[in-house]
Amino acid sequence: MKIKYFLFDFDGTLVDSRMIIVSLYNSLAAKKGYKLITNDNITYLRTLSIKEKCKALGVPRYKVPFIVTWFSKRFYNEVTKLSFNEGMKALLHSLNDKNVPYAILSSNAQKNIQAFFEYQNVNVPAIYTSGRLFGKDRLLKKFMKQHNAKPEEILYIGDEARDILACQKCGVPVVGVSWGYDAVEAIQKTQPDYLINTPEELTKLLKGFFNE
Asked: Which range is the signal sequence, renumbered to this chain (predicted)?
């Protein structure tokens, strides 16, 4: 069946926000006594699940929802420091030029995402967000209900194992990209429908769908 909608993750997939997230986390970790993210451990942390990351950093798992909210409130002030990952801005402009339906599905706050796209002068059709770190399956179901779309008519593009697992839970085809928050090893374990290593590969894949 033909893909009718592309759904993109925001942090890691479209934009490079890693250093902002690390900086915010470390400022909190210094106050709370959690382990810091450093150049020595960041590569290892990218191979871990959320649960394993929490254990490695000494962060109580029950604190994660509060930390996500804390991040979202402070992220807004850092929006102008964000940049698109290579090729992603051009890809979105191409989708807009061809009137290809797409949307953003993210755990970041809508205010933050909207501010970034306005700053970058990119008109995004729709943004769906959830403050729940593991709430993307609900966002996917909400999107499908609103658009009367079947799972196989959607293609999700994300950079974390939790993105892929959420899609698999809903029966939605998913592209895992290796340049985001999770390492390619973590992505491979979840067996996405597509594993993409470069923005050029992603652009080629998506153009193959919307040129059908």
From this structure: none
Q: pTM score > 0.85 for this model?
A: yes
List, for residues 138-168, the tens digit of each pLDDT value.
999 999 999 999 999 999 999 999 999 999 9
pLDDT at 1 over 70: no
Cβ neighbors of 75 (< 8 A, separation 6 or more) are 17, 20, 24, 108, 109, 112
Check whether residue 113 and residue 199 sit in a common domain: yes
Looking at residue 64, the DSSP 8-state letter turns out to be H
Q: Round to whole Å and give the CA distance between 129 and 142.
A: 11
Clarify whether residues 157 and 68 are in a common domain: no
Mean pLDDT of the residues in the chain = 92
Nearest to 137 by CA among 176, 166, 103, 172: 166
Centroid of chain to Cα 211: 25
CB of 101 within 8 A of CB of 148?
no
Crossing angle of helices 136-147 and 161-170, in 10° steps, is 40
Range of the domain at 24: 18-80
CA-closest candidate to residue 99, choices 128, 123, 115: 123
CA–CA separation, 113 vs 118, rounded Å? 9
* pLDDT score of 133 more than 80: no
Residues 147 and 199 in one domain: yes
Amino acid identity of 29? Answer: A
